[in-house]
Amino acid sequence: MRPRDDASSLAERAPTDHKLAKAISDANWAELVRQLEYKAQWYGRELVKIDRYFPSSKRCSNCGHVVGKLPLSVREWNCPECATHHDRDINASINILRMGTRGVRKTQAVRPRAADRRKRSEPATTPARLRNADQERER
């Protein structure tokens, strides 16, 4: 009997096949990013991506000090510089928020009111720099 190659057999194999599990996870992450980019463009917003190696959980959100080594098993830690106590996940979320909103005006970071949103049938407007690039190519 031939092994099945449908989605259910992949789901059954994924927990034991680490390469397959990683490939599925990477594909899901790529789809999430694609959807976020689409939605940001639809609503006329900018999607800000943070560097993969940004030390969000190791950087003190109070003073900015970066701890050298911080194993994943350590869930709470104290900053050696300012003595602030941090929960690893909350500290990381604060740092990611700051990094993502750095240089963004406050009005840009807020979701538009329902009255200001375009209807689904209306496409997003093309940002000025993309319009200019398209005009340059046409010349």
Essential attributes:
mainly alpha; two-stranded antiparallel sheet; flat; 139 residues; 2 domains
Question: Gist?
Answer:
This protein is mostly helical and about 140 residues long. It has helices spanning about 5-15, 20-40, 90-100, 105-110, 130-139, and strands at about 75-80, 85. It has two domains: about 10-45, no CATH class; about 50-110, no CATH class.
Walkthrough of the structure:
With 139 residues, the chain is mainly alpha-helical. It folds into 2 domains: 10-47, no CATH class; 50-112, no CATH class. The chain is built from 5 helices and 2 strands; from the N terminus they run H-H-E-E-H-H-H. It has helices spanning 7-13, 18-42, 88-101, 106-109, 128-138; strands at 76-78, 85-87. Strands 1-2 form a two-stranded antiparallel sheet. A hairpin with a 6-residue loop joins strand 1 (76-78) and strand 2 (85-87). It is flat and about 50 Å long. The chain starts with 6 loop residues before the first helix and ends with a helix. The mean pLDDT is 76.
Topology overview:
Blueprint: H1 7-13, H2 18-42, E1 76-78, E2 85-87, H3 88-101, H4 106-109, H5 128-138
Antiparallel strand pairs: 1-2
- Note the gap between the termini: 62 Å
The strand line-up of the biggest sheet is 1-2
Query: What is the count of structural domains?
Result: 2
Helix content: 40-55%
Backbone CA Rg: 22 Å
What percent of residues are in strands?
under 5%
Q: Ranges with pLDDT <50 over ≥5 residues?
A: none
Mean pLDDT: 76
> Helical region count?
5
| Helix and strand composition category | mainly alpha
Number of strands: 2
Q: How does the major sheet shape up?
A: 2 strands, antiparallel
The topology string of helices and strands comes to: HHEEHHH
